[in-house]
Write a structure and sequence with these properties.
Helices cover about 45% and strands about 20% of the residues. It is of the alpha+beta class and about 100 residues long. The chain has 2 domains: about 50 residues, Rhinovirus 14, subunit 4 (Irregular), CATH 4.10.80.400; about 45 residues. Strands 2-1-3 form a 3-stranded mixed β-sheet, with no helix packed on it. The N and C termini lie far apart (about 105 Å). The model has no long low-confidence stretch (mean pLDDT about 90). Bound molecules: zinc ion (ZN). The site of zinc ion has 7 residues, from loops.
Amino acid sequence: MKKDIHPEYFEDAVIKCACGSTYKVGSTLKEISVELCSNCHPFYTGKQKIIDTARRVEKFETRLGKKVEKITKKKVKRQKRDELKKEKREEAEKAEA
Ligand SMILES: [Zn+2]
């Protein structure tokens, strides 16, 4: 090996996962932190779990909630309009009779 060009190599570097498990590997970093590992990744566990580090799911759900609210407001308006029409029609029929 050429001298003074290689980084320091740690034979017993440790990878720590957010789930709690640790792994020993060789690395130029003494300690590595990861969010997922083969112990907790849904692909390996077979369990469905949403990994939401950027709050994307939460954001989507709030957006979806707003949309639903809008739709229901529209529906309420339409219902009121329909009721008014019905009443007017009934009054007209009464007047005719
Ligand atoms: Zn893990």
